From TrEMBL, chains A, B:
<feature type="binding site">
    <location>
        <begin position="17"/>
        <end position="22"/>
    </location>
    <ligand>
        <name>NAD(+)</name>
    </ligand>
</feature>
<comment type="function">
    <text>Catalyzes the NAD(+)-dependent oxidation of L-carnitine to 3-dehydrocarnitine.</text>
</comment>
<dbReference type="InterPro" id="IPR013328">
    <property type="entry name" value="6PGD_dom2"/>
</dbReference>
<dbReference type="Pfam" id="PF02737">
    <property type="entry name" value="3HCDH_N"/>
</dbReference>
<dbReference type="InterPro" id="IPR008927">
    <property type="entry name" value="6-PGluconate_DH-like_C_sf"/>
</dbReference>
<keyword id="KW-0963">Cytoplasm</keyword>
<feature type="domain" description="3-hydroxyacyl-CoA dehydrogenase NAD binding">
    <location>
        <begin position="13"/>
        <end position="187"/>
    </location>
</feature>
<dbReference type="Pfam" id="PF00725">
    <property type="entry name" value="3HCDH"/>
</dbReference>
<feature type="domain" description="3-hydroxyacyl-CoA dehydrogenase C-terminal">
    <location>
        <begin position="191"/>
        <end position="259"/>
    </location>
</feature>
<dbReference type="InterPro" id="IPR036291">
    <property type="entry name" value="NAD(P)-bd_dom_sf"/>
</dbReference>
<keyword id="KW-0560">Oxidoreductase</keyword>
<dbReference type="InterPro" id="IPR006176">
    <property type="entry name" value="3-OHacyl-CoA_DH_NAD-bd"/>
</dbReference>
<protein>
    <recommendedName>
        <fullName>L-carnitine dehydrogenase</fullName>
        <ecNumber>1.1.1.108</ecNumber>
    </recommendedName>
</protein>
<comment type="pathway">
    <text>Amine and polyamine metabolism; carnitine metabolism.</text>
</comment>
<keyword id="KW-0520">NAD</keyword>
<dbReference type="InterPro" id="IPR006108">
    <property type="entry name" value="3HC_DH_C"/>
</dbReference>
<dbReference type="InterPro" id="IPR026578">
    <property type="entry name" value="L-carnitine_dehydrogenase"/>
</dbReference>
């Protein structure tokens, strides 16, 4: 007996935890026109949360608010059960502490109406380990956002072993309705996808700073003046597809493949088997969506110019 | 006895190797108003090179050409010595093959007027190992660009053991004059800075595809819809400075530091010593350039919105 609303019919959202991520979710859902109830165990969270929402609001106004969007639609709950009592969706954004998440999700599970999906913002725990104390684990999913959740579209959705498929599908559909870009994962991987990639960069950066190989400023400039300008349009795979010239990913792997043996990062590379090569080449073909290399290059160039100008305008406004 | 011109006085540039990177350099230098001589050992390189320059030209026109910039300023050399005989700067962009680079740089060194700086586009070799066969190794530097060199500003400049300091300084100054963003490195690190970071992402991505943890399309979307939107303005360090909320990098490391022990990537993290923590915190303070967290957040939000719109415009034009 589910009291699960249609994803498009959801009006009331509960946000549990009101730090940078939880507060960012509050701003996002308010901007999309939802009634939002927030709760956080910190006694003084309300002014901080309102400050965060107020700081985000001009950006959200500029992006375009949904009909009925209003900061007055934010309700501060005094207790956890009060926050979720009539929620139609719950987003949990507590600190990254497994024991804390397990306890909190169990309490949320006990207080949230059956059939209502509960999503965790965890940056890397699997739902299998987090849902261990829940009575109705079938409706718990990971819905991993990026900072700030009110601007960065990505949400990674994945269930745990005891999550039922309908809950994963429902969460993916709901996040799409709520204006997010969703990647639905079929299996649990620690760190999901984007954080594994981002964390690899971050760890290499920390090593370089620790060893005096680069400064914080050099690391940041090396991204903002370099590869970071390509990544808003094409991810690392299509970017390297273009690095192969007219031969694309196939040429790139045949030409630069041996570089995988180079000590260019502390991360060991996988063996570049024929199977992996073909998988990369075919993936790039699919992602190219009918565009040949020249068309992809033209798209990339237009995007890089637009991104350069966008960043210059922000820097120039200082 | 150097016949080294002032960086601002250079008019004639030789580009050796005319593939994706070499051809991109040709397009860049033409757009900046230089006389460019190109040479490549492939007998049919000229039509390919002209196609590449023609494809890049509309983007360069839109960005704004330098006075006197003209595709007619491209000269095709029949031989390597002819290409560099009266060059005031030489950029080498041959395939990534150490033996080939060593031979080629030795030939360039023999044919290029003394005092003229020779720069290699190598993606990761150290100049120390590449300059081994040169008679005048003091003027050889790495000048590592990013694809496409005519749009992505970054050039990483670093010398080898036998490079003299004046050549590194001259190359950095010249690249700035020629419209690039320069990071001058004090020591050789395999892969320099940006490629170490980029390669860490790339290897993690290859592992995930090899293990069926993610598809090419999911990997690319996880960047383009997620962290990739933040990186054009703030690199990984300042991005995480903001993830710490009002406490900045210090709070971020204290809060998420334990995540470095998580298996979120195949790259082992360094020990988060007090020294490393302080270095990251101080680096972020410097990079913040007087802006408090609220001001950084406002800058980031403006940039993300502008980048989102830039990318949407390119996607919408398809």
């Amino acid at each position: 007996m589910h009291a699960t609303p249609e994803p498009t019919a959801v009006r009331r959202v509960a946000c549990i935890g009101a730090g940078v991520i939880g507060g960012g979710w509050v701003a996002h859902f308010l901007a999309r026109g939802y009634q939002v109830t927030a709760w956080d165990p910190a006694p003084d969270f309300e002014p901080k949360l309102r400050r965060l929402v107020d700081a985000a609001w001009p950006a959200l106004v500029e992006l375009g608010l949904a009909d009925g969007a209003d900061r007055a639609n934010l309700t501060i709950a005094a207790t956890l059960p009060e926050a979720v009592a009539d929620a139609e969706f719950v987003q949990e954004s507590a600190p990254e502490d497994l024991g804390l998440k397990q306890d909190l999700l169990a309490r949320l599970d006990a207080a949230t109406p059956p059939g209502v999906v509960i999503s965790s913002s965890t940056s890397g725990y699997g739902m299998t380990e987090m849902q261990s104390g829940c009575t109705r684990p079938e409706r718990l999913v990971v819905g991993h956002p990026f900072n700030p959740p009110y601007l960065i579209p990505l949400v990674e959705v994945v269930g745990g072993e005891r999550t039922e498929r309908w809950a994963v599908d429902w969460a993916s559909a709901f996040f799409e309705v709520a204006g997010k870009s969703v990647i639905t994962m079929d299996r649990e991987v620690p760190g999901f996808i984007a954080n594994r990639l981002q964390e690899a960069i971050w760890r290499e950066a920390l090593h370089m700073v620790a060893n005096g190989e680069a400064t914080v400023e050099q690391i940041d400039s090396s991204i903002t003046e370099g590869p970071g300008l390509r990544w808003p349009l094409f991810g690392p795979c299509l970017t390297f597809h273009l690095a192969g010239g007219e031969g694309g990913m196939a040429h790139m792997l045949d030409h630069f493949g041996p570089s995988l043996k180079s000590p260019w990062t502390r991360l060991e590379a996988p063996e570049l088997t024929d199977e992996l090569r073909d998988r990369m080449v075919e993936g790039c073909e699919t992602a190219s969506d009918g565009r040949d290399i020249a068309e992809l290059v033209a798209d990339r160039d237009r995007a890089v110019i637009a991104v350069l100008r966008a960043v210059e305008a922000v820097r120039g406004a200082r």
